[in-house]
Amino acid sequence: MNIQQLDEDKRDKIRFISFIIPKFADEYKMNKQEAYRYLKKYGGIDFIFKYWWTLHVDNPFWSVREIHEVCHENGGLK
Questions:
Q1: Are 23 and 64 in contact (CB under 8 A)?
Q2: By the 8 A CB rule, do 78 and 72 touch?
Q3: What is the CA radius of gyration of the chain?
Q4: Closest by Cα among 29, 31, 38, 32 to 68
Q5: For residues 23 and 73, what is the distance between their CA atoms, to the nearest angstrom?
Q6: Pair 15, 9: CB distance under 8 Å
Q7: Residues 47, 70: contact at Cβ < 8 Å?
Q8: How many angstroms separate the Cα of 58 from the Cα of each of 2, 27, 62, 63, 74?
């Protein structure tokens, strides 16, 4: 993998994370800061960072639901 490809992968990851947190916030009626704190507290951010590639090819609706399920399994509200 060359440097240009690596940089492109990082940009794609950042774009996805910048996209999915507001989607999560909208779906669960939070502002972006509340959503980030919730995701951070209940393992959603770690899940997003680990599985972003898989999540980004799925429908955003289902990605948000899957992230929420991970948070719920870690003590977040249902």
A1: yes
A2: yes
A3: 13
A4: 38
A5: 20
A6: no
A7: yes
A8: 27, 16, 7, 6, 22
- How far from 29 is each of 21, 35, 52, CA to CA, in Å? 12, 9, 22
Report the pLDDT value the prediction gives residue 28, as an integer from 0 to 100.
97
d(CA 65, CA 49): 16
pLDDT at 6 over 80: no
What is the structure's pLDDT at 7? 86
User: What is the token pair recorded at 46?
Assistant: 């770690």
The answer, as to whether pTM is greater than 0.70, is: yes
With a pLDDT cut of 90, the percent of the chain lying above it is 85
Q: Which tokens is 37 given?
A: 């704190």
Structure tokens that stand for 78 in this block: 């249902």
- The single residue listed with the structure tokens 């770690």 is 46
Does 14 score more than 90 pLDDT? yes
